[in-house]
Write a structure and sequence with these properties.
Blueprint lengths: L12 E9 L12 E9 L5 E10 L3 H7 L10 E11 L9 E7 L3 E5 L4 E2 L16 H14 L6 E4 L7 H10 L3 E6 L2 H9 L5 E4 L5 H8 L4 E6 L3 H10 E9 L19 H4 L3 E4 L9 H13 L7 E5 L4 H9 L6 E5 L2
Parallel strand pairs: 8-9, 8-11, 9-10, 11-12, 12-13, 14-15
Antiparallel strand pairs: 1-2, 3-4, 3-6, 3-15, 4-5, 5-7
């Protein structure tokens, strides 16, 4: 096996680069919370495969795990990746297979083959299986198709509309005939949402009077909300919700790095307007992953669904890339291209 060293009386080993936390973050994550280190990887045993990471997925939910010092072991960062099988000791995988894995941030590693899923990269970039065809896209599909179920002519609002989940959610709602209003931070992101993603409008939550701008963009009120952020976007939308409105609560990005109370001035509208709020996780819809990915792939090939990626090269740059993602820099799916 390339890169492995054989020593008399010992198992073959190779070196790998790994990123882990050095401490529990005090508040907001910084690069000093991370450590880049070299670790030893042993050759795969029966039923295992040796992987070369190709892409790491940078996802907001990881911040919550990091800040709580949560995970399989303290300091470990276990996220989603796309990798290539470089040596297989499993009958179910072959060298060169491209797989999806939940694994440590590491450029080479050995995993149990039972936890891997082969992905089809025929005519589709491998990275798409971490974004539009992966958990991000399927989360959007579940929230729109299974929870909100938008009807033609309804007004639907999507927060974090330039992100990997919100961007797909809004486009799926438009395909269902809804009028879709995005919320994003800054003029450049709003322009991207309107022009590239083809939303009907986009409101800048950093503007001088966000509630007034939202009201102007939703003259007939709001029938449904796909919420990714938290109180800063949820509260002004609740003020505009129509009776019987639906909220798919996908994430609380704004609140992942603190334990402060989530305060809503317009909370009583949930009762007064009979608004239904449903939180959900993508894993709730595991049985429908294949069907969702197939539908999303078809939309992608026909250009009825668009996406973008913010890609950082090199695993050593993963900590800064992750912090940049949390700060809202870039659009679409955030990834680290390992090699």
């Amino acid at each position: 096996m390339a890169g492995f060293i054989a020593r008399p009386g010992k198992a073959m080993t190779a070196e790998a680069t790994r990123i882990r936390l050095t401490r529990r973050p005090a508040h907001e994550l910084c690069v000093q919370d991370f450590l880049v280190e070299q670790v030893t990887v042993k050759a795969p045993c029966q039923g295992e495969v040796l992987l070369r990471a190709r892409y790491l997925s940078l996802d907001p939910y990881l911040a919550r795990r990091m800040c709580s010092w949560d995970g399989p072991q303290a300091g470990a960062i276990v996220g989603r990746m796309i990798a290539e099988v470089t040596h297989s000791a499993s009958p179910h995988f072959h060298n060169g297979d491209i797989v999806f894995a939940e694994a440590p941030w590491q450029d080479r590693l050995v995993l149990d083959a039972a936890g891997l899923r082969r992905v089809d990269v025929t005519g589709i970039a491998a990275s798409a299986w971490l974004g539009v065809l992966g958990s991000s896209g399927i989360t959007a599909w579940a929230g729109v198709r299974k929870i909100i179920a938008p009807r033609a002519g309804e007004t639907l609002v999507v927060s974090a509309a330039s992100g990997p989940v919100g961007s797909v959610a809004g486009q799926l709602a438009r395909l269902a005939g809804a009028r879709v209003i995005g919320i994003a931070g800054g003029a450049e992101k709003c322009r991207y949402v309107r022009e590239h993603l083809r939303f009907d409008a986009c409101v800048d939550h950093r503007g001088s009077d966000f509630p007034a701008a939202l009201a102007a963009a939703t003259p007939d009120g709001i029938d449904a909300l796909f919420e990714n952020v938290g109180a800063n976007t949820l509260d002004p939308v609740l003020q505009r919700m129509n009776k019987g409105g639906r909220v798919a609560l996908c994430g609380l990005f704004q609140h992942y790095q603190d334990e402060n109370p989530v305060c809503l001035k317009h909370f009583r509208n949930l009762l007064d307007k009979a608004i239904r709020v449903q939180g959900f996780h993508v894993s709730d819809y595991a049985a429908e992953f294949d069907a969702a990915a197939s539908e999303l792939a078809s939309c992608l090939r026909s250009d009825t669904l668009r996406h973008s990626e913010t890609v950082t090269d090199g695993i050593r740059n993963a900590p800064q890339a992750f912090i940049d993602m949390l700060a809202g820099r870039g659009t679409g799916k955030h990834l680290v291209r390992v090699g």
